[in-house]
Structure formats: structure tokens, C-alpha cells
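Input (structure):
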């Protein structure tokens, strides 16, 4: 063993204490830390050393070269990309995930049983989101892989409806995908699955500044398929305006027609935690599969999401993902192994941060996080509505505000305004386009965000708007 590695091993307590102190200092000052960084500060690449420096010296190098570039993306005023912030409990769970370094697969294996933790975390998430136990779930890296996992099983279902085993034979027939405003990750999953991102049958949206599926147009397209099966990708909160499809109406269509119903509820699914807003997900339990992101409103570290697929499709799921060319014998749940139920063979124990946070704060804690985010978004929306400088592009439906500079003549200044706003380091938002207009998105999901943060954000915006006049 080389001296540097041996020395680090002997000094592990000292090294972890240094990291702990640096981490605590960062977390305690995260509200003051910049939300963006000057690209001019990016250092030149450094070559791999012949002899290693040892961890303590490398930490000094990191602090000199990269630490100043670390933005407060988990802080209270980072409103871009629907990004949550790690709760203290989830940080603890994440550290332990690294320390114990399990390859999470089995519930009975001699080498590892950490999937027991995962299944327990899934059960708690189903309880939190008021979904039935008839869903089988697992942790993946994000909404991209959750959508991929769900649609992959839907693809296998579609093939079986056509008497084809797509997992073995490949795609030999067109697959009908119906959707209105799918998230980019859902479209990407169609590309990766060989279905084709351009093979979507686009459904109209409801009238009146909506992004929800037009139920009438959906049924019209269903009837044109003349009884052919199809896969419906619906939205449990669109990215721009957090619009929800009418799940009750879709449930009724499912009673009449043969289709796989998938809901992308990456962050909108957490509306189920709110007594005031849970009506938005009414009847979503009738879906065949659901995507939910954990590193958004659950506020656990990146990268974390879950898929929920009805347990009745477990054989289709195994046919899609089984880790062997041999046929699966017997009930796959009796000798359960995540190797056979999702894409990744190598899996970190991503469930542990979620398990810690769910156990630490419970239903009431997450209800408070969700309600607080909605409160802050409504406050921000009221500022936009009462301002002479800004206007809403869509109603504030939950936790994300889509807005722009007031007046068509200001459209050419929207990107400039956003760049200047983000450059202040006080807040970070992302650009968008909605109804042929340039806009800005602000997503409130961070557990740290307060009324005080909204005040700081709106003051910075008002000052910049005045300077641009």
C-alpha cells in the first residue's frame, strides 16, 4: 500500500472532521452564498500527478481552485430547474450511504440486504403521497430514468397486446404514444427506448391558457386508432405552469379503452401532501405508472427519483429488466432483487437519504414544506401581478411562476434582464418560452425558503427593472 493511501487510512477521523467543519460552515452560510458564479473564475485543467498528494493537500487544492465556484444551488433563493435543498436528515443519510457503500439489490442476499431499506422507503413514500400499496417502486437517478423505466414496461405491455415480446424481439411495429405537453425527459426516454421521440401523437390542450390535455381531442384520437392499444403520457404538473391533466376524466376513458396510463408527476405529485391542493392529483392512483422526483420537493440530495408501477405488471417488468438470459422462474417477488426490476445493475443506496428524511420529519413535516413553498410562490405571484414591470404568463397554480417583462416591446429585453438578475448572485431563475413569448420561471421547492427570501428577490428584481428603463 502506497504511503499516501496508508496515511489517509490512519487519519480518516481527522480528514472527516475537516470535511465536517467545512460542510457545516457552508450550510450555515448558504443563505448568504452566491447563486451564480463568474465563468472567468474557472481554472485551467490540471494534469494527473505521478505521485498523489494525499487527501488533506487535495482538499486545499479543491478549496483554492473549485470551492469558490460552488453555488448555493441547495439554498433558499435558487429557483431554477425545480431544485430542492437537502434537509439535514437527508444529508446524514447521504453520508452514511457513502460510508456503508452498499450495492443495493437484494432483500435476502448474503452479501447485501439494503433493499429492505429501499422497500421500506418506497412504502413510506406511497403513504406520504396517498397512493395504494398496489404500486411497486424503486429508486433511480432522476425523472429521466423514472420515465424511462415506466415507459419501458409500458412498451413491453404494448408488445404483449400485439403478441410480441419486444424485450426479446425488438420493436417491429409502430408504438402509439399520445401526449400533450410532455417533459423533455419523457421525450428523451422515447428516443432511448427505440420508440422514437418524433413518433408522438400530439393531443391539443384545453382552451383558456392551459397546458392540460384536451379530453375531447384525446378521445377523438383514441377513436381514430380503431381499438389499437396505446401509451398515454400525462402530466401531474407541467414544467412551465404546473398544469395538471384531468385524471378523473382519464380514469373514465380507461374504463372504455385499452391503454397504458403513465403520469409524469416529478414535482407536482407532492400536491398530495397539501389538504388544499391534493384535489389536483385526484384519481392518479388509477394510473399504471407514475414518475416522482425526490431531489425536488422531497428535498434530498441529487440524484434521486422513484418510479411507481402497478404490481400487477411485475412479470412485464422482469421481462424488460431481468439480469439474465434465462427465463425467470416462479414469482419474482418471492426472490426479489432490484437487478430484475429496473435499468441499473450498479446501484448506490439512494433510498437512505429519503428514508432518513421521511422518518425525521414525517407527514406533518413534509406537509409544512409543501405548504410553505406554495405560500412563497403565491407571495411572489402577487408581487408580479401588482407590478408595473412584470406580468404573469399563466396563473399561479402551485409552486412555479411563469412570468415575463410587461409589454410586448420588452420581449427583446427578457434574456438581458434574467442574465443581470442571475449575475447579482442573490437569486437564480431559468429562461423559458410560453405561448410564443419569452419568459422566466421561478420554482419554489426548497425547505429553507421563507417570506424574507421572497422580499430579497422581489427587491432585487424591482431595482433591476428600474435600471433597465
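Output (sequence):
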Amino acid at each position: 500500500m502506497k504511503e499516501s493511501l496508508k496515511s489517509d487510512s490512519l487519519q480518516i477521523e481527522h480528514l472527516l472532521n475537516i470535511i465536517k467543519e467545512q460542510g457545516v460552515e457552508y450550510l450555515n452560510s448558504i443563505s448568504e452564498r452566491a447563486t451564480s458564479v463568474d465563468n472567468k473564475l474557472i481554472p485551467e485543467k490540471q494534469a494527473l500527478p505521478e505521485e498523489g498528494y494525499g487527501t488533506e493537500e487535495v482538499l486545499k487544492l479543491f478549496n483554492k481552485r473549485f470551492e469558490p465556484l460552488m453555488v448555493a444551488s441547495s439554498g433558499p433563493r435558487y429557483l431554477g430547474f425545480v431544485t430542492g435543498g437537502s434537509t439535514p436528515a437527508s444529508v446524514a443519510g447521504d453520508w452514511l450511504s457513502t460510508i456503508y457503500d452498499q450495492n443495493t439489490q437484494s432483500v435476502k442476499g448474503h452479501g447485501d440486504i439494503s433493499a429492505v431499506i429501499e422497500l421500506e422507503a418506497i412504502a413510506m413514500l406511497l403513504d406520504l403521497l396517498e397512493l395504494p400499496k398496489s404500486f411497486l417502486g424503486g429508486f433511480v437517478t432522476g425523472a429521466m430514468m423514472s420515465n424511462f423505466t415506466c415507459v419501458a414496461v409500458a412498451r413491453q405491455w404494448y408488445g404483449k397486446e400485439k403478441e410480441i415480446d419486444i424485450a426479446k424481439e425488438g420493436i417491429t411495429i409502430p408504438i402509439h404514444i399520445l401526449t400533450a405537453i410532455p417533459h423533455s425527459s419523457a421525450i428523451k426516454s422515447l428516443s432511448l427506448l427505440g420508440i422514437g421521440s418524433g413518433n408522438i401523437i400530439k393531443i391539443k390542450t384545453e382552451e383558456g391558457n392551459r397546458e392540460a390535455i384536451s379530453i375531447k381531442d384525446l378521445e377523438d384520437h383514441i377513436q381514430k386508432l380503431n381499438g389499437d392499444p396505446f401509451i398515454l403520457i400525462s402530466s401531474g404538473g407541467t414544467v412551465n405552469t404546473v398544469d395538471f391533466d384531468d385524471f378523473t376524466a382519464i380514469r373514465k376513458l380507461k374504463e372504455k379503452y385499452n391503454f397504458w396510463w403513465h403520469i409524469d408527476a416529478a414535482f407536482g405529485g407532492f400536491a398530495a401532501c397539501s389538504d388544499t391542493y391534493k384535489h389536483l392529483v385526484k384519481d392518479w392512483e388509477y394510473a399504471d405508472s407514475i414518475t416522482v422526483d425526490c431531489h425536488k420537493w422531497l428535498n434530498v440530495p441529487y440524484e434521486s427519483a422513484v418510479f411507481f408501477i402497478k404490481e400487477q405488471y411485475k412479470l412485464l417488468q422482469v421481462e424488460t429488466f431481468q439480469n439474465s438470459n434465462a427465463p425467470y422462474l416462479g414469482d419474482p417477488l418471492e426472490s426479489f432483487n432490484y437487478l430484475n426490476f429496473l435499468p441499473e445493475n450498479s446501484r448506490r443506496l439512494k433510498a437512505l437519504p429519503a428514508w432518513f428524511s421521511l422518518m425525521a420529519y414525517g407527514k406533518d413535516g413534509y406537509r409544512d414544506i409543501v405548504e410553505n413553498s406554495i405560500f412563497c410562490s403565491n407571495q411572489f405571484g402577487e408581487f408580479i401581478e401588482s407590478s408595473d414591470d412584470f406580468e404573469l404568463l399563466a396563473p399561479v397554480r402551485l409552486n412555479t411562476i411563469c412570468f415575463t417583462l410587461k409589454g410586448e416591446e420588452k420581449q427583446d429585453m427578457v434574456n438581458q434582464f434574467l442574465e443581470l438578475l442571475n449575475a447579482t448572485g442573490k437569486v437564480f431563475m431559468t429562461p423559458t418560452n410560453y405561448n410564443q413569448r419569452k419568459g422566466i420561471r421561478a420554482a419554489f421547492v426548497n425547505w429553507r425558503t421563507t417570506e424574507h427570501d421572497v422580499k430579497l428577490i422581489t427587491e432585487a428584481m424591482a431595482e433591476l427593472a428600474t435600471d433597465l428603463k
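Notes: Residues 367-468 form a domain with the Aspartate Aminotransferase, domain 1 fold (CATH 3.90.1150.10). The chain has a mean pLDDT of 94.
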